[in-house]
Amino acid sequence: MNELQKKPPYAMIAILFVGAFIAFLNNTLLNVALPTIMVEFDVPASTVQWLTTGYMLVNGILIPASAFFVQRFTNRKLFITAMILFSLGTFLAIIAPEFWVLILARMIQAAGSAMMMPLLMNVMLTAFPIERRGAAMGMFGLVMISAPAIGPTLSGFIIEHYDWRALFEIILPLAIIVLLLAIFKFRNITPNSKAKLDVFSLVLSSIGFGGLLYGFSSAGAKGWDAPIVYGTIIIGVLSLIWFVLRQLKLEEPMLDMRIYKYPMFALSSVISIVVSAAMFSGMILTPLYVQSIRGISPMDSGLLMLPGALAMGIMSPITGKLFDKYGARILAMTGLVIMTIGTYMMSNLGMESDYFYIMAIYTVRMFGMSMVMMPIMTNGLNQLPMNLNPHGTAMNNTLQQVSGAIGTAIFLTIMNARMDNVAEKLFTEATKAGVVPTTVDALAQFKAQLGIQAMLEGINYTFLIATIVTVVALVLAFFVKRPIATKQS
């Protein structure tokens, strides 16, 4: 154990935590405000979506390159630059006179926030010895999980009482305080090297991850048969294959694929992808059920999901300590059993399911998830030698982004396909029974009722598929072992 690990820089880590919390909160803060922004700038839904799509694409491009940035630049320079960009983007969003300025502001914010998670994780891996990393990463999980989950509830309240610009006005002073504290309190603790950036790798990675993120994110709105959807996915896949082959040949790869020689890291990646896909599906399907089928307001919908977010946040540091004591396998298996039960219960929702019952099973599901994500990720990173940590964290964060987008797109497609089949079947049965109204208004109302019934069936069916997906992750968790730290590779 080195001197730094005996006495970790807690003040510096606290500043990093607050900076990361603000950045992660910002990820989901704007979603509820999109309809209001559409009206103010007179833009259609397909255009306003770029406020989240653009943000996500910049993240998808910069996070894979974060391994290079973390190795090449000191953590002090990197964090201060990230906070300056984030603050600048936030200020620009407050004063945005035109819609394109707001999109530019969001992209500048994203350029700052993309560095936060990889930087914080690398500082934690450097500052804490392997036997104390669980507790440290548990605290990090508190930030990573609770901030995006609180976002929709907080923004729902603000939009109901204030202007959408208030979302950014709240964040800017906090970002400036964090920036000032970083200037005075930060020191350099992560190891640096004269790493060179392979520009062609950056281009391939940007096209690859950007193409996948855009293609899968657009599939829900545009449909899988739209050339822009399957075109960007195909280009993304081909670019990524080329990117991986290039990394294997380079002496100094941008993203070192040797991390997959370590079996626990490889296994943690697969489990994380499966759990991320299931988590994001729940975050999309639950509000859809609550708002579209039950007619509950967005604010109440956000409040319904808040206890789940708080449960994850509270459990994260506890899970970290349990991880240090018992390892990842028992935690992941317990969490995935709870998650599987919770997801299965979500597949049996009805037209009259009680609000607090939905809240309870959603919270149980999130409670189970809190026992899986950080322990599995930390277990994989613990097997990597110190010099490969930046590559491991960059890969983990990139996969989380991409699997979230892919999981959401696939689960929404399953829901829509089931919904269409059920709606057609119900209408055919009603026609045969002779109960279809003949007047135009009554027929429209009748079809709307069938549509709600079909949507419920679609959501329940999709949660059933998500249950099977979590069972796959549970089976994989049986193979998790506590790794022995590897010396420099």
UniProtKB/TrEMBL annotation:
Keywords of the record: Cell membrane, Membrane, Transmembrane, Transmembrane helix, Transport
SUPFAM superfamilies per record: MFS general substrate transporter (SSF103473)
Membrane topology: Multi-pass membrane protein
Major facilitator superfamily (MFS) profile domain sequence ranges: 12-485
Subcellular location: Cell membrane
Molecular function per GO: transmembrane transporter activity
Statement: the UniProt record of this protein carries the keyword Membrane: yes
A GO CC annotation given for this chain: plasma membrane
Membrane-spanning residues: 12-34, 54-71, 78-97, 103-125, 137-158, 164-184, 196-216, 228-245, 265-290, 302-323, 330-349, 355-377, 398-417, 459-480
InterPro entries: EmrB-like (IPR004638), MFS (IPR011701), MFS_dom (IPR020846), MFS_trans_sf (IPR036259)
PROSITE patterns linked: MFS
Family membership noted in the UniProt record: Belongs to the major facilitator superfamily. EmrB family.
Protein name: EmrB/QacA subfamily drug resistance transporter
Lineage of source species: Bacteria, Bacillati, Bacillota, Bacilli, Bacillales
